[in-house]
């Protein structure tokens, strides 16, 4: 483990908010990061097979479940640990050092269990009442339709790239629902036994996430399986009447900004460490130079390490701040939220600084499939394509707000959207 991560995790653990949640079940257990570190050797040993099989190894999934990592962000009322979010993100970073795909799926699964705390209690009981280890994948883009019928909706659609769907029992999908004659984004929870999961995940990197498509045809979905997305953003979900800890008062935009950032950060550290290992005894044949002593290589390594340290501080710092603000009952204003989202959108770019400057040093040896560096590079390139890592999109939203312009952002509610969410929550949940 890098000294930087150890220092950052220690700082997070020592932060004033660390003991703010009296119901947390993690107080007498190893931290999430420590549990993740214990799993790294096995996950690293399976990483090449995960890439080849295009799905997380079942032993890795079982270890993540058994360790409690998948339940880190889950409501304690339903078997979760309600952990410090910075500790969970540090755990994802740790797993990312071993396998980007496994870290990606862990982060996704953890975030979904956090979101379920906002849904109606009847749904939480259905999902977690008998088995708190239930796993939920997602595909949030509104790619389906929902027709109102008695007791719920008739759902049709095809949702792409549902990471972790192979290991899950349910999935959250996005659908626009007509409310007062206008489309409003809703999240629907589908039982995966009732849909088709289609294998179309043939990609350059993050192959092991198994991010397949979900296809639903005339599927009845009960009313309590759906929630207005803006109601969740406004922290007005019906589940919060019971799940009232500060963890669930963190802005979803801050948390979900990490789903690509945390795995990318870990993979950047993995590349950095593996590259140093490979060059430690590497002598270039053409001139017999020791690569580990070349000034240019050392300077590139220095830049790579600095970029990772800086960005790790940014990501974990935002998690600390978001949790502390939630504990204090303080809300982000729109610009603060946009700044946090933008800052974390820069993570995969920062993690790529090292690989882009160092790949050429090892010439042809770095591109063979048996060399883990090429896999990490491909994984980072793919992570950069995630919507949360769109620097231009999130930077423009932030600067529009700073300039006093209207900003379009999925996670940032305008005054009109917030009022509509409040009205909707009052109508539905009282």
Automatic annotation (TrEMBL):
Record the organism. Arthrobacter ginkgonis
Annotated ranges, domain Acyl-CoA dehydrogenase C-terminal? 259-387
Q: Which Pfam families match?
A: Acyl-CoA_dh_2 (PF08028), Acyl-CoA_dh_N (PF02771)
**SUPFAM superfamilies documented for this protein:** Acyl-CoA dehydrogenase NM domain-like
| Residue numbers spanned by region Disordered | 1-31
What residue spans carry the Low complexity bias annotation?
1-19
- Where the record annotates domain Acyl-CoA dehydrogenase/oxidase N-terminal, the positions are 43-118
| InterPro entries the record matches | Acyl-CoA_dehydrogenase (IPR050741), Acyl-CoA_DH_C (IPR013107), Acyl-CoA_Oxase/DH_mid-dom_sf (IPR046373), AcylCoA_DH/ox_N (IPR013786), AcylCoA_DH/ox_N_sf (IPR037069), AcylCoA_DH/oxidase_NM_dom_sf (IPR009100)
What GO molecular function annotations does the UniProt record carry, in alphabetical order?
monooxygenase activity
PANTHER family, alphabetized: FLAVIN-DEPENDENT MONOOXYGENASE, OXYGENASE SUBUNIT HSAA (PTHR48083:SF19), MEDIUM-CHAIN SPECIFIC ACYL-COA DEHYDROGENASE, MITOCHONDRIAL-RELATED (PTHR48083)
Q: Does this entry carry the keyword Oxidoreductase?
A: yes
What would be the name of the gene that encodes this protein? hsaA
Q: Which family does it belong to?
A: Belongs to the HpaH/HsaA monooxygenase family.
The name this protein goes by in its record = Flavin-dependent monooxygenase oxygenase subunit HsaA
Q: Which UniProt keywords apply?
A: Monooxygenase, Oxidoreductase
């Amino acid at each position: 483990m890098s000294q930087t991560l150890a220092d950052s995790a220690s700082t997070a653990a020592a932060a004033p908010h660390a003991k703010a949640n009296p119901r947390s079940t993690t107080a007498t257990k190893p931290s999430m990061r420590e549990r993740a570190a214990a799993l790294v050797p096995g996950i690293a040993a399976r990483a090449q097979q995960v890439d080849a099989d295009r799905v997380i190894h079942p032993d890795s999934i079982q270890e993540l479940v058994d360790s409690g990592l998948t339940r880190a962000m889950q409501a304690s009322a339903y078997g979760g640990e309600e952990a410090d979010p910075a500790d969970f993100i540090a755990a994802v970073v740790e797993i990312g050092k071993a396998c980007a795909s496994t870290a990606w799926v862990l982060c996704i699964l953890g975030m979904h269990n956090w979101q379920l705390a906002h849904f109606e209690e009847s749904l939480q009981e259905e999902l977690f009442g008998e088995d708190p280890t239930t796993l939920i994948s997602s595909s949030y883009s509104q790619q389906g339709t929902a027709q109102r019928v008695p007791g719920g909706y008739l759902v049709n659609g095809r949702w792409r790239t549902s990471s972790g769907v192979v290991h899950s029992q349910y999935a959250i999908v996005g659908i626009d629902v007509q409310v007062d004659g206008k489309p409003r984004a809703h999240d629907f929870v589908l039982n995966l036994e009732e849909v088709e999961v289609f294998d179309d995940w043939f990609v350059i990197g993050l192959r092991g996430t198994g991010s397949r498509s979900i296809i639903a045809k005339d599927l009845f979905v009960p009313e309590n399986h759906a929630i207005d997305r803006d109601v969740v953003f406004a922290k007005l979900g019906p589940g919060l009447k019971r799940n009232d800890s500060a963890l669930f008062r963190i802005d979803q935009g801050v948390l979900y900004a990490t789903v690509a950032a945390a795995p990318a950060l870990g993979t950047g550290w993995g590349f950095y460490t593996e590259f140093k290992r490979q060059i430690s005894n590497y002598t270039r044949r053409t001139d017999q130079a020791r690569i580990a002593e070349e000034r240019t290589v050392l300077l590139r390594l220095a830049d790579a390490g600095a970029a990772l340290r800086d960005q790790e501080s940014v990501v974990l710092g935002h998690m600390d701040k978001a949790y502390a603000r939630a504990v204090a009952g303080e809300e982000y204003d729109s610009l603060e939220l946009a700044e946090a989202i933008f800052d974390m959108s820069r993570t995969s770019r920062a993690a790529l600084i090292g690989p882009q400057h160092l790949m050429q040093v090892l010439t042809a040896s770095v591109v063979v499939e048996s060399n883990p560096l090429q896999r990490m590079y491909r994984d980072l390139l793919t992570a950069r394509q995630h919507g949360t890592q769109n620097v231009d999109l999130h930077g423009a939203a932030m600067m529009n707000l700073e300039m006093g312009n209207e900003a379009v952002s999925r996670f940032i509610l305008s005054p009109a959207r917030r009022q509509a969410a409040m009205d909707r929550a009052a109508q539905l949940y009282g």
